[in-house]
Design a protein that fits this description.
Mean pLDDT: 96
Number of strands: 12
Bound molecules: nicotinamide-adenine-dinucleotide, zinc ion
Distance between the termini: 48 Å
Largest sheet: 7 strands, mixed
CATH architecture of the largest domain: 3-Layer(aba) Sandwich
Strand order of the largest sheet: 1-2-9-6-5-3-4
Structural class: alpha/beta
CATH topology of the largest domain: Rossmann fold
Low-confidence stretches: none
Shape: globular
Strand content: 15-25%
Number of helices: 14
């Protein structure tokens, strides 16, 4: 079993465990601690099987366990669902000594993380991500949020005590979900880990998940440990997300697809500005991984409007994460001429 630590200052904030088969056993989901009696598990429709197996295993270990299935996907990330969940925790008699466990994709772990961080002003929270995107991104780093009018507008920074990643569960994901998460995993390679890129270049989508997850989680854990509240270096995790979010906003394509297109656009912008000479290699790798590198038909003016609405705009242009080389990110303000050329490169014209 691999362990990665996320730190906050000099303290260990979260332990991340990675191995096949670990989501369904009481150990390591529950850090050793006296006084814990009840465990409330939140899940969503997709990963019911591992969630129920974990519940059973925690019961065998002597805990009182209750399990609640949230609405699927973004329908879970609302304040009414959060309130219903608080009321459910009241009815279970959960105390500060007890624990909340969220088993699922990023939507379930975002809600579980938010509820765990706020119920009784914060109780022990364990996240068990069951999508690749959840494992390498959403469950790591202590950002929790629900949607109120806009996406992720209400939330808190709060690390889970533990994150338990079962690579066996991830290996059984439907290909569509695997590809979506691969966008965020390969992003970690582009910004910080050329060896992870080499794994993907050699094996494509069949790259061994244990290695992919270990490497991608390490990248995110290191960045978050250096900058928990996103004052500086954490911004590099937004690689591909400036243009990606704008395209997602106007076309409703899956997030991972939008990020892939956004990385291609960032590659084109970097060719013009930083001397980045691997835009072609980046594009080829994304194609090999089954990710889109061209935007769907969208209105250029609408994409530009979404870009300019974004907080990432400043007086001289649009703030973007660009690469100087694989593993060497930089954040800069990109002028509108270059932004338009980058959009053109992904078919937004
Ligand atoms: N907190 C953060 O830092 C952060 C970072 C990135 C994304 N996010 C959030 O994560 C969410 C997206 O996460 P996601 O892509 O994991 O989506 P998701 O949680 O919406 O799950 C997608 C689908 O996969 C199903 N599913 C989950 N595990 C499964 C499994 N093992 N087998 C089969 N189906 C399974 C779910 O039921 C759902 O239908 C968004 O809400 C996003 O805002 C948060
Ligand atoms: Zn993302």
């Amino acid at each position: 079993m691999e362990r990665i630590r996320v730190t906050q200052g000099t303290e260990v904030a979260s332990d991340v465990f990675i191995d096949a088969g670990i989501a369904t056993s009481a150990e390591p989901a529950m850090p050793p601690r006296q006084g814990r009696r009840r465990v409330a598990i939140l899940t969503q429709p997709g990963p019911l099987e591992p969630a129920e197996a974990l519940a059973e295993s925690l019961r065998s270990a002597g805990y009182e366990v209750a399990l609640r299935t949230l609405p699927d996907r973004e329908a879970a990330k609302t304040l009414p669902v959060v309130e219903e969940t608080y009321l459910w925790l009241n009815s279970l008699g959960i105390t500060r000594h007890d624990a909340v466990v969220a088993v699922g994709g990023g939507a379930a772990t975002d809600v579980g993380g938010f509820v765990g961080a706020t119920y009784l002003r914060g109780i022990e929270t364990v996240l068990v991500p069951t999508t690749l995107l959840g494992a390498v991104d959403a469950a790591i780093g202590g950002k929790t949020a629900v949607n109120v009018g806009g996406k992720n507008l209400a939330g808190v920074f709060s690390h889970p005590a533990r994150v338990v990643i079962d690579t066996g569960v991830l290996a059984a994901l439907p290909e569509e979900l695997l590809i979506e998460g691969t966008a965020e995993a390969v992003k970690a390679g582009f910004i910080a880990d050329p060896d992870l890129l080499a794994l993907y270049q050699t094996h494509g989508l069949a790259a061994p998940l244990a290695d992919v997850v270990l490497r991608a989680v390490r990248v995110k854990a290191d960045v978050v440990s250096a900058d928990f509240t996103e004052q500086g270096v954490r911004e590099i995790l937004n690689y591909g997300h400036t243009v990606g979010h704008a395209i997602e906003h106007v076309s409703a394509i899956p997030h991972g697809h939008a990020v892939s297109i956004g990385m291609v656009a960032a590659g084109a912008a970097a060719e013009e500005t930083t001397g980045f000479d691997s835009a072609g290699a980046q594009r080829d790798l994304l194609v090999d991984l089954g990710l889109p590198v061209e935007a769907p038909r969208v209105d250029r003016a609408a994409v530009e409007a979404a870009l300019l609405l974004d907080k990432k705009r400043d007086a001289t242009g649009v703030r973007m994460v660009l690469l100087e080389a694989f593993g060497k990110p930089t954040v800069m303000s990109v002028d509108m001429t270059t932004v338009r050329a980058a959009l053109y490169a992904v078919g937004v014209c």
